[in-house]
Amino acid sequence: MQFVVNGLVTGAAYALVALSFSVVFRVGRFFNFTHAAVFTWAGYFGYLCWTILGLSLWAGALLSVCLSAVLGVLLELSVYMPLHRRRASGVVLLLVSLGLYTIMQNTISMLFGDEIKRLSGNTVAEGLSVWGARATRIQLAIVIICVVVFVAFGILLRLSPFGTRLRAVADDPDLAAIQGVQVHRFRLAASALGSGLAAVVSLLMGLDVGITPTVGLNALMMGVVAVIAGGVDSTPGIFLGGILLGLAQHLGVWKIGTQWQDAIAFAVLILFLVLRPQGFFGKPLRKAAV
Amino acid sequence: MLRVDSLVTGYGKKQVVNGVSLEVGRGEIVALIGHNGAGKSTLLKAVFGLLPIWSGQVFLDSEARTTATPRAWLRAGVSYVPQGNRVFADLTVRENLEVGGITLPDKQRLRDGMERVLALFPPLKDKLKQQARTLSGGEKQMLALANALILSPRLLLLDEPSLGLAPPLVTEALGRIQQLSRDNGVTVLIVEQKVREVLKVARRVCVLRNGAVSFEGIAEELRNDTKLREVYL
After folding, report:
1. Per the CB < 8 Å rule, is B102 touching A179?
2. Which tens digits make up the pLDDT trace of A228-242?
3. CA distance from start to end of chain A
């Protein structure tokens, strides 16, 4: 039973990362590596707020999430919007974001060092019993927050005017502009939303297992696998993709061994890319309109 | 109503439109025709603020609007329908119309507008909850037009509404645009490749060649004079 609980917790975290990435991806339409950097920075914002400034759990969390959203917006404003305006291709945007990611990750290493930092202080969290397995409070929080966020996000995207417009911008930004949607505002809103969401997961995972300068990239890779498994435009698909990936990994750990964890994730990725590239609920792939 | 004065524009460094002047009077349909790459679509995009205008000016009701953004044009009662009858494929028909109407000041106007365009295009009424990707070519054309008409524009800029439609639907679509102009007094500037069909509905015609106007006149003249047609088309 323990592996199911662990798998659900990990899967919930992956699903949240995947959702945060999909928000940024849908509007930007390129593989944005700086999303991983924002994820990492969010963890270190938490470290600053909690360990160094000594803020309370909630105040520190709120401040870290806001700082991360601001960081995402600043990146969009200063780097990606000018590039979009010049009609830069997806490859150009990807390379720029990879370069920026490297700089941002190394800045963290320089400032804080490469060793693991604990966010939860020195107290060892007591475990609670769930279905005969052990889980910490923070692990339960991950699962609950995941469900709440997915429901809220689904409602926001499907039922609010903001969501309709965001989907319109994701679908065809040029047409949206023609019809009077202020596309740049939605790009900024999407980066704030995606970055803030990434920060929430980053803090939760940081509280659970601690942070290093590379947590962002690891999380993003798993998130992307979940996005591809679920289909980028399908919120329920992303949820399912994350949970199944988490379960598959922990089943693998239980049956084969921990060193195969990443191999399992990428095996899932390859399986989906070959057999069902549009994901569970995804629509058939189409070429992006030029 | 719309006056374009020696407009020059292009993509990047490549100049495509080399000083075009044309005028569209209130209530008339003006067809903009010419070969592929003559600069028709580019001209329309520049007028609507989607491409920077390098030099020249654009006036709406004698008011300079050279630097107006798409949003400003929409607010001034000018709608633009881009090439290929583009609609938001992932959104439902209703959501498409909601986005089409976002520059309307309040919800009541949106509801009125929606009712009005659905009366104009009854086939869309039964498909409000369907994703736009499931529509037929003709229905997509209706939706693209409905998205522009929901704002009750005074001037419509249409870029090849017939593109990708089967021949009988082309006549139907252009006929619908003519009827719309007649019934509601909407002024239309229409770019078309289907010259024969568009000359039947347009009052005046403007032929572009290599980014400049090579002929301007009454559509009927061009339709009936074989010599003119040979020279200009």
Report:
1. yes
2. 888 888 889 999 999
3. 50
